[in-house]
Amino acid sequence: MPVLADFHLHSHHSGDSGAPMEAQVRAGLERGLSALCFTEHLDMDWPYENTPDLAPGTFDLDMEAYRSEFRALKEAFRDRISLSFGVELGLQPHLGEALSAFVKANPDLDFVLGSTHLSRRMDPYYPCFFEGLDKKEALRTYFRDSLESLRAFHDIDSYAHMDYVVRYGPGRDSDYRWEDFREEIEAILSFLLSRGIALEVNTAALGKGCRDMNPCRGILERYYEMGGRRITIGSDAHAPGNVAGHFEEACGSLKAVGFQGYLTFSGRKETFRSFQIST
Ligand SMILES: [Zn+2]
Ligand SMILES: [Zn+2]
User: N or C: which end of the chain has fewer CB within 10 A?
Assistant: First the structure.
């Protein structure tokens, strides 16, 4: 396995996963990982009125329950795998203060991932996001809103699944060309580079019938050209079967672009790890 750390995964502490934490850790060990970071969902002020299948509170996070189970697990597995305590924060333009307060109140976090799950108070996972808009305009709006949300709050270590929006909508990513949104996407990449925020390579879409990971290969090439070298890698597994999913494929693409390794985090400090030589 060329990548030995999965820095994006969920357990039952996330409202959309039922996976026991220990099962996720054991899956990581089976895949040969040496490090793994839980990044449980916290999406403050989620618009439940636009996601009727979700019970109110689904994307709240009980930090005390999460912390206490995590600590016990870290201790139990300390000789076998390095476990990190992370969170996936849902960004929205009006949440700057609330998210800052959350991060300050939780100084024991190892890793903070930022995500844009919402644009115009809608999740692209639901068809209503695309209703009444040309698909390109819907995508463009998502990228513009992503930058606005990042400007409002950016005390994050890595920015997750940057073109997540293309996993959904009519035709999914089959007719997506990142160059159609070059201006918006380059503005996001510049912002991340200027603030020292890493770019996440998220492999989940490869298991969901999409052509490419998030962000797509073209964006990764552009990021590299712009001087970007700092990436984190995550499967976004919500179940044990997906832990470290499609990492070999992702690593092949990343090496072809020029990347030589990836980052892991502990106490919000990064460590660079080279890709393993496959044997
Ligand atoms: Zn996410
Ligand atoms: Zn996630």
Answer: C
